[in-house]
Amino acid sequence: MKKGEIYDGIIERVDFQNKGRVPVEDKVVTVKNGIPGQKVRFVINKKKGGRMEGRLLEILETSPLEKRDPVCSIFPACGGCMYQTMLYEDQLAMKEAQLRKLFDDAAGYEYTFEGVKGSPVEFAYRNKMEFSFGDEYKDGPLSLGLHKKGSTYDVLTAGDCRLVHEDMNKILLCVLDFFRTRGVSYYRKMQHMGYLRHLLLRRGSKTGEILVNLVTTSQEERDLELLKTALLELDLEGRIVGILHILNDSLSDVVRSDETRLLYGQDYFYEELLGLRFKITPFSFFQPNSRGAEVLYQTVREYIGDTRDKVVFDLYSGTGTIAQIAASVAKKVIGVEIIPEAVEAARENAAMNGITNCTFLADDVLKALDHIEEKPDLIILDPPRDGVHPKALPRILDYGVEKLVYISCKPSSLARDLKVFEERGYRMEKCVGVDQFCQTVHCEVISLFVKNK
Ligand code: SAH
Question: Ligand 1, residues 273, 316, 372, 382: which to mutate, most atoms within 8 A of Cβ?
Fold first, then answer.
């Protein structure tokens, strides 16, 4: 088998995350972006340590697991909802098998695997979406939506994206129409020229409150008064509480603000989870699937167990959601989070919810552990995708707490960390998947670690 050669084969299984196994001749090639049972054509593009990798070129035959038609118009080019042609129950069964295998391979000891809990809503679950301006093909008409899979340039208009509430689709189409009819330019990453960059939409699924954030460069001055009017005239189920014009001249493709102009209303919105209220600002992290997050946090609470007289550390605390949920069953909770705005919001939210036994520190987890005088009885970890910093994890485990709850949005990072836990005398007693991202390849995991007696 050589690089550049083209083969056909059947995906016999998809391992976590998105790793299709295709047996060809006496070898197994890893091909991403497929579903078990599909007959695919792929080109060999990499050889990594004896493992063969192929890039999917074409799906020759659909899989028996694909029991329904695509649910949106930009499938499969968009690539966000890889599993949308599978029934949700089949998606869950597949994620369950994937996680079991991932942890069986990594653990090497007995643990309880409690399956995968589904999201209460399968569609329209996202409370946040970041759309890009661009064109669908070179010099095509203005588009607004999601990047074509594998492309940094082509943007597909996501006017019927099923991951978000219809209100968001209506807003997207309204904004696109406004700028298309006026022939406004989009920002070209290579030339650093142009005006329109992103449309960041957030919508509380419980409250229906919507925050519209238009992100542009400062290369043009445009009157956005009529856009505001058009948006406020839309027939929506929820309600727009704020329209922000965010100026961003940074060369990198991340959404951030150099200057924020309030076009209408306020620069925050509220969402509710498990009876608690949270104020959310345009850039602060909040679990993207609100109803799914309730299942996640409820399960975290069960995993924490009885902590009435205990001091709990909530590391990587974001806007303090987990800390506040743990607060009702703990003596004291200390949250640590690196983004000052998120810490600010966490404090404000705790006060608003009448919670008085939480404190939040704005610091890097690695450094914060040096300053905190209290010793924890229990630690909750919810790190970003890359997992806990290799230097921070041993420090955390040195506290020697009896129980640790680890929430992972990237189970392969957790699987990697299992060894470090084991070296320090911990083993994973149980874990459970909580699907926050229906139709996609992702899955959240909660695990309970206990200290060996
Ligand atoms: N527990 C929260 C947030 C989890 S996301 C929730 O459920 O909503 C992970 C968080 O870790 C993010 O808010 C991110 O800003 C923060 N973070 C990333 N690196 C960090 C570090 N080194 N120290 C502290 N916080 C960090």
Answer: 316
